[in-house]
Amino acid sequence: MDGERVRAALLGSTVRIAATALGVVAIALVAAVALGLVGVPGVEGVDNEFGEVNDTTTVVVTDLVVDNPNPFGTGFLGASAEYTVRMNGVPMANGSKGDLDLDPGENDVRLRTYMDNERIPDWWVTHVRNGERTAVAIDARIRSDAAGRSVPVERTETVNTSMIERFDSNETRPVDADSRVFDDPVLYVNETRGEWGNVTAEETPMRATFVAYNPKDVPYVVTEMRYEITMNGVVVGEGTSQREYVIEPRSSEAIETRTAIRNERLDDWWVTHLRNDEVTDLRIEFAATVEAEDPTSLTGETVSLQLPMNRLTHAETIETDMLGSENESTSGNVSGDGNASASAVDAPAAGGP
């Protein structure tokens, strides 16, 4: 029994001694950090780029340059890296990497963060509501549990587009019908205007206006306007407006039609945008049905004209650099330009009234 008591006492003493030693080390570590004797690793540079992308997920690859100011490794500091991406305040991706054992001096740390593509429609709504402008906020930081401190590096990229602005045009464009009854062109469109409507979570409406001139001696009745919107070949909107407009002979009339992007299709477009090196070919195509009195008919019959309106097709290329991948590695609090651009390519103009 005495031997057991002795062993228990010795074991208890050993545990107490170890706990006390650990406590002393922890206190000493905290004191050393407070006195500046032990430094907290910090981010010296950050590079971001999109990695793999599939129908559901986008990978964000982040390469950090982390400086360990201490002459020893950081295994005992409980160092970890954290990363967050927000687009107009919408959380898009976040991730972390723990148990960083950093050597003295500069270290390369790679993070892989996963973005749910279903967040793309949420971001898109903010982009359009914000005047086609997005602030991409990137926050990367190194945290030390032992020191109870974190050192962040923040970066903001600005992405601007001008899809709706470039729809506006004062160019006169002829519209052909390839009809056996009327010589081409059967119409001239002298002006186009567009503006975003009330964007909702479900759709992004656009009001399109065409000022059309009827060069013939009979009135036209526009019975239907059709449209299709594609982004990199993905159909993101299509529909028909059946409001009728009458264009009197040798007169002009403003024809309005409502188009809309179905926001739930934008995550499919996003995949093509990234796979195409952040380049999108946007196309908005229109067609119309026009009824007019047949000038060759003796009984006043009407003829229906199907107008493809190819010369009114709006096409433009949108290029973005959402994460600032084309910029150099940065450190500190940085505000950059996402280098977004859009160039419009419309059908060539032709003469008309």
Helix content bin: 10-25%
Q: What's the total helix number?
A: 3
The overall pLDDT, averaged over residues, is 83
Looking at the overall shape, the CATH architecture of the largest domain is: Sandwich
Number of strands: 19
Q: Give me the oligomer status.
A: single chain
Structural class: alpha+beta
End-to-end distance: 116 Å
**C-alpha Rg (nearest Å):** 32 Å
CATH class of the largest domain: Mainly Beta
What's the CATH topology name of the largest domain?
Immunoglobulin-like
Q: Summed up, what is this model?
A:
The chain has 353 residues and is of the alpha+beta class.
For the structure shown, list the relevant keywords.
Immunoglobulin-like, alpha+beta, five-stranded mixed β-sheet
Description:
There is one protein chain. This protein has 353 residues and is an alpha+beta fold. The protein folds into 2 domains: 42-160, Immunoglobulins (Immunoglobulin-like), CATH 2.60.40; 165-319, Immunoglobulin-like, CATH 2.60.40. It is built from 3 helices and 19 strands. The termini are far apart.
Please write out the topology.
Elements: H1 2-34, E1 42-53, E2 57-68, E3 79-87, E4 90-100, E5 105-116, H2 120-129, E6 133-144, E7 149-160, E8 173-175, E9 187-196, E10 203-213, E11 220-231, E12 234-241, E13 245-247, E14 252-262, H3 266-275, E15 279-293, E16 302-307, E17 314-319, E18 334-337, E19 341-346
Parallel strand pairs: 7-18
Antiparallel strand pairs: 1-2, 2-5, 3-4, 3-6, 6-7, 8-9, 9-10, 10-14, 11-12, 11-13, 11-15, 15-16, 15-17, 17-19
